Amino acid sequence: MKSLSLRNYWGLIFAAFILLFAAVLSMLVSEVSTKRLEEQRGNALSSAAFQMKDRLDQYMWGRYSEIKTFGEIEELELTTSIEEKRATLEMLQDQVPAFSWIGMTDSAGIVTASTNELLEGMDLSERPVYSEARQTDYIGDVHEALLLADLLPNPSGHELEFVDISVPVFYSDGSFGGVLAAHLSWDWAQEVMRFVLRPLNGNENGLEVFVLSPGDNRVILGPEQFLGKPLPIDSYILSQGKRAGWVLEQWPDGNSYLTGFTRGRTNWDYPGIEWTVLVRQPEEIAFAAARDLSRIIMLSGLASAVLFAFAGWLVAGRISRPLNEISNKAKAFRKGEQLALPKNTGVREIEDLSNSLESLVMTLGTTESDLVRMQDLAQRDPLTGLPNRIALEEAADRMMKRARTDGEQLAFFYLDLDGFKKANDTLGHLAGDQVLQKVAERLMAELPDDAFISRIGGDEFVLLFPCEGMGEMPTRQLAQRLIDRLSKPITVEAGRVKLGCSIGIAIYPDNAENLYTLLSYADAALYVSKENGKSQTTFYRDIASE
């Protein structure tokens, strides 16, 4: 076999080495980054599914509470006239347009009064909206309109769907007098879905939400081609075993999707439905960043291979001790030691080789720095500079592990600005962005050194800090300082803005040991603060005992 020339031999050796190194590095970086990205994206989709479920439950709880309250107020006494009952029902419908129809039946199930006089005189005794509500409150699953299909306006043209809400009404002596029933239009769920996805759709393309009926996992909200059909996929099966999570799975269309899911109750106590919510994203979109990084590394490796093949051809005439020394140094570098090449002055070929190896190290270092910078950008809110929800999940996991090891407690503050939407609508979105930046600065100025603050969307912030030994009063005092600081006027280019701040607090591990549960508890406490007049602080344990 004819031997290669010395220059060609070393040129091929250098080219093969760089190509192999770039390929291995590309595979390792791609595998690690894909796994980390899968974990981050899966948690983000699971969080979005939880938010969707929580918003659905919150809205249903609100509408159920309104019907429940109206079933008990004086204006709906069974002895009042039909006209008075009808006027009261139409007043409620005007306040909550999502109620497509509200009616009152007598004890036999005959509609005696209703909005716009629809179905008055109709016998509902055989329908669940009456029969299920004779003894207790009733909420039915989503269903198509039957009696009202041709009576209600339908500008969209698609089939009307309702959720039934009904409560029994009793005489003052406790005897059954009839049922107060309402048909809640399912169109509001579309608004909830758009609200939840709006913060993600800026650079999170391809997201789709599925809401499944609890009885037969039928799709009641989602892409049109799935509506009304069962969805036999792994994430739904998994969701029946635990409350939340994510999975990478193949859907019936043959494509792989990263799918987050949640099921069961959130914070809103009302009878009836326990929907399952899925949020999916195509695999190629979810992991696009990892593939792009791998491609960059491979291209850099190819370019470096060409460069070093030429360098090997140049130095082939001077294979001697300096070259062996450089080879030994390169082998040590592959084992993780720092690269420190000897300075062989006077031999141009050896100097070129040394400089080329240093250039390779700089290129790889730059690529690693770019990866770190990309990871930082993915965990940073671009408007305020605060950590985002992804960073919150990592920080919470880290701080809860440390707290568990040290036997400490963590306080979870859920903050929401009072009056921000009005200011944003009045002064414009640019002024609203400036206000959020000012709020972030004020929060950072008030935080303890070991605290963590993040903006999770809109005007909502989450604060974590160790509170062991502080007791309830110092924790409450810190919350009040934040409220006082954020209540001071904020001056922006468009004018002065007067805001407030409501806070809900959950304590780890006293209230819960799961991040999503703690956040949901703090959010529930925040809701109570707003209901009690805003600019207040509420501990979850104070409402959990109610």
Overview of the structural elements:
It is a single chain. The protein has 546 residues and is an alpha+beta fold. It has 15 helices and 18 strands. It has helices at residues 6-70, 82-95, 128-131, 188-197, 234-239, 283-286, 288-315, 321-334, 348-378, 389-406, 420-427, 429-446, 472-487, 515-531, 540-544, and strands spanning 99-105, 111-114, 138-139, 143-144, 161-170, 176-185, 208-212, 219-221, 244-250, 256-262, 276-282, 410-418, 452-457, 460-466, 490-492, 495-497, 500-508, 537-539. The strands form four sheets. Strands 1, 2, 3, 4, 5 and 6 form a six-stranded antiparallel β-sheet that branches. α1 runs antiparallel to α7, α7 (288-315) runs antiparallel to α9 and α11 runs antiparallel to α12.
How many H/I helical runs?
Answer: 15
Q: Largest sheet at a glance? A: 6 strands, antiparallel
* Tally of strands: 18
Considering DSSP H and I runs of 4 or more, what fraction of the residues is helical?
A: 40-55%
Estimate what percentage of residues fall within beta strands: 15-25%
Overall structural class, as computed from helix and strand content, comes to alpha+beta
Using the alpha-carbon principal axes, give the shape.
Answer: elongated
- CA-to-CA gap between the ends? 90 Å
Q: What is the residue-mean pLDDT, rounded to a whole number?
A: 79
The gyration radius over C-alpha positions equals 32 Å
Stretches with pLDDT under 50, minimum 5 residues:
none
